[in-house]
């Protein structure tokens, strides 16, 4: 099955993971959840030790001193404000097709919502590679007219490169946290199936009891996500039977692990269910960078964990492409 024109299959969890396990809400955690902040300026071994703790517990953490200037982050958000303020027909002229590149309108990119409703967001995808191969997510990026949005493409390419550099540094820490050489993942990520997206959450307030979400509960499909948000809260993660807020923190990005890291580490590092619930009637913008390995990379958990089988994920050696088809069948 090929991807739909929106990105639903790219970030939606299999149906059995869309809802928190029944009966676990009574297990309130005694200690308030701490999502750790990992200082990227510290020596890698110290950062990797902190990261190991985060990856085995929440699968989410903040990164500070990440090297991306606030000026660049604000410039790309300013471009997105202008883009999403264009007339709907101008945006729809760039509507994403099979390649998943371009615009998807409000309600299109819905995770499997229990009420059958679409997510209250619109978005736009830009990939870091272009290819004419007839494969999911392959294709050519689309861009708004330079005369309409001056500097848009240049800003986005700069933002992609800056976020990619952060993601690659996190990948080195993941390798070290697995007691592997820091560059262990390098040859599996030298042609990554990676993209940036901007998500514009529309003004209305969300209500989980009515199935109205910014983004419904899902896990990310790829290896890891590096997320910049504006200062409007909304992101929640599902840990110890509870939905817990992960608020914006000045000068940091939020990083979470995706299903490929879960698979690659035999379930040791977690890909955690998350969603966006915006309580107030105000807009919200976020710009995730999604890192996935080379399309033909082999994901061998036995090699990565240097361990004998521990779970039902063990001994699975699947490429990124096969992982895609596993998810889209779910
Ligand atoms: O906007 C956010 O805070 C999270 C977005 C997200 O989870 C996603 O796009 O996969
Ligand atoms: Fe996500």
Topology:
Layout: H1 8-11, E1 37-39, H2 44-57, E2 60-64, H3 70-84, H4 88-92, E3 102-104, E4 121-127, H5 152-177, E5 195-201, E6 215-218, E7 224-229, E8 235-239, E9 242-245, E10 253-257, H6 259-264, E11 274-276, E12 284-291, E13 298-300, H7 301-305, E14 317-319, H8 320-329
Parallel strand pairs: 1-2
Antiparallel strand pairs: 2-10, 3-4, 4-5, 5-12, 6-11, 7-10, 7-12, 8-9, 8-11, 13-14
Helix pairs in contact: 2-5, 3-5
The protein binds 2-oxoglutaric acid (AKG) and fe (ii) ion.
DSSP summary: helix tally: 8
Cα distance spanning the termini: 11 Å
Associated small molecules = 2-oxoglutaric acid, fe (ii) ion
Q: According to CATH, what is the topology?
A: Jelly Rolls
Structural class assignment:
alpha+beta
The helix/strand series, from N terminus to C terminus, equals HEHEHHEEHEEEEEEHEEEHEH
The shape is globular
Proportion of beta-strand residues: 15-25%
Number of strands: 14
Instruction: Bin the helical content.
Output: 25-40%
CATH class: Mainly Beta
Stretches with pLDDT under 50, minimum 5 residues? 1-31
Oligomer: single chain
GO molecular function, one term: metal ion binding
Domain Fe2OG dioxygenase: 192-293
Region (Disordered): 1-26
Biased composition (Polar residues): 1-12
Compact description:
The strands form three sheets. Strands 1-2-10-7-12-5-4-3 form an eight-stranded mixed sheet. Helix 2 links the parallel strand 1 and strand 2. The protein is built from eight helices and 14 strands.
Give a description of the structure:
This protein is α+β, with helices and mostly antiparallel strands. The protein has one domain (15-328): Jelly Rolls, CATH 2.60.120. It is built from eight helices and 14 strands. It has helices at 8-11, 44-57, 70-84, 88-92, 152-177, 259-264, 301-305, 320-329; strands spanning 37-39, 60-64, 102-104, 121-127, 195-201, 215-218, 224-229, 235-239, 242-245, 253-257, 274-276, 284-291, 298-300, 317-319. The strands form three sheets. Strands 1-2-10-7-12-5-4-3 form an eight-stranded mixed β-sheet. The chain has a four-stranded antiparallel β-sheet with strand order 6-11-8-9, with no helix packed on it. The chain has a two-stranded antiparallel ribbon with strand order 13-14. Strand 1 (37-39), helix 2 (44-57) and strand 2 (60-64) form a beta-alpha-beta unit. Helix 2 (44-57) packs across helix 5 and helix 3 crosses helix 5. The longest helix has 26 residues, at 152-177. Bound molecules: 2-oxoglutaric acid (AKG) and fe (ii) ion. Fe (ii) ion binds at residues 11, 218, 220, 274. Belongs to the iron/ascorbate-dependent oxidoreductase family. It comes from [Myrmecia] bisecta. Keywords: Iron, Metal-binding, Oxidoreductase.
